[in-house]
Each structure stands twice: as C-alpha cells, then as structure tokens.
Amino acid sequence: xxxxxxxxxxxxxxxxxxxxxxxxxxxxxxxxxxxxxxxxxxxxxxxxxxxxxxxxxxxxxxxxxxxxxxxxxxxxxxxxxxxxxxxxxxxxxxxxxxxxxxxxxxxxxxxxxxxxxxxxxxxxxxxxxxxxxxxxxxxxxxxxxxxxxxxxxxxxxxxxxxxxxxxxxxxxxxxxxxxxxxxxxxxxxxxxxxxxxxxxxxxxxxxxxxxxxxxxxxxxxxxxxxxxxxxxxxxxxxxxxxxxxxxxxxxxxxxxxxxxxxxxxxxxxxxxxxxxxxxxxxxxx
Length: 285
Ligand SMILES: [Cu+2]
Prior knowledge:
Layout: E1 3-4, H1 12-16, E2 41-46, E3 49-51, E4 55-67, E5 76-80, H2 86-95, E6 99-100, E7 104-106, E8 118-125, E9 128-133, E10 150-158, E11 170-175, E12 178-181, E13 188-196, E14 202-209, H3 215-220, E15 232-241, E16 246-253, E17 256-261, E18 279-284
The protein binds copper (II) ion.
C-alpha cells in the first residue's frame, strides 16, 4: 500500500536561519555516542548531499549527522525491503514524488539541526540495503531528497565488538497523534528512547523554544499562510520510525522550554501531524 508522503511544510529552513544561529550554546553532542562506548558512524550533510561510509556492520549503531550546509538537514534512514535497490527507489520517487513506496521501512535517524551543529540517534540495524535521505524542504518547498540528498548504505556482517542498546533515562512514546513522556527531561546530555505505538510512521523533532512560546506556536509558523520566523529551533530528535519500531536519540538540554513536534504527513488528509495536535511542551530545569 503506497503511503502519501507530501511533506509540504513551507520551509523549516529558510524561516529559521538567520534568527537563531547567534543564540546557540556551544556544547556539541558530538562524540557523546550514546551506546556504551561505541563510536558513532559520522555522516556529513551539506546542500544537498551526504558524505560518509557506504558500508557498516549490522547491530546497534549510533549515527551522527554533522550539518555543514546552510540549510537544516537530518538523516531519515530507510530500509529497502523485498530486494529493492536505491535505483528502484529513485524510479519510484520519479514516478510519484508524493508517495513513499510501500517497500521502504522507516527506521529512524538523527533529526534536524541547524548549520554547524550535529545530531545523534541510535538504532539497531539488521543486515540489508538502506538509504539515507533528507525530507526537509528548501525555500521553494522541494524536499532535499528531490535535490539529490540521498545516499545508499549497505549494512553487512557483524561488529567486532557486540554493542548493546543504550540505557535510556526515559522513553517518549509516539501515537496517532500525540507524544507521551515517561518522566521529565532534566538538564544535561540525555539519551532518550522513542517507541512508536502508533499505526503509522512518526518522528520526534525536539525544538528549543523562545521564552513564552509553545510547540504549537512553532508548528503554526509552518502552516500555510503563516508569516514570521518560528519561535525556536530544532536540536535533534529521531526521524521517522514505522509502527512498532523503536530507537534512541541523544541531545544536550539546557534549562528552558522545549517542544516535541511531528511533521510527518497524515496519510488521509496529507496534513502534517502537528496540525492534528501532535505537539508537546516541557520545561527543563
Ligand atoms: Cu506523527
């Protein structure tokens, strides 16, 4: 069953940039590798492509995206099923760019960060063929994927040292269409498990909000006809996980107010999930 996938949100990036770059702390999550000492697999994102390894061993994998572009970027990791290849994926997207083929599985990946920053997520990857893609749209609303931002990744063999899943301090559960948090997020570097109990793919975008702003305000800045910059900026999270999947992300939290947002589109209405109420607010003390 093909899934509607129009991510028609007017331009996360162009609205955000400029207003926020100056107010960021300088505490990278970089080598924070969240999974018991294993060093992260690093991919560099630029406008518009990924650089990094073509092949990695299977198992629990911490993936880091370093944004060296001028735009926002993330890594949506897709597993290609039924023996399909990157070429099949390109052909399917050329035939219908608004639908993800039914044979791709959303298996997470580090979510959006502004230029100069990095974002970290940890997933248990089984052997197979994968694709890294960026679904964030440019100023014209074209997803970076369509601008060439896709890279095949082959997952084969096993790691020399077995790595176990990270011990997460807390869990965020996603559902249609809400977030539930097992306990409050405290200041510092945190590794958080995300489990999708919804019927469709969901993502977690973590947003550092301006004082007094809510996640809903942030989402409203991306609704059609909205004007003005959104009241905050993304600091990572995990990109789409299919129903029943789980993964982890690691972010550094300073005291302040934050939001969780899902920009994935509803298969029926095509509207992003935040327009169906998929936002949450929390305060880090
Ligand atoms: Cu969602």
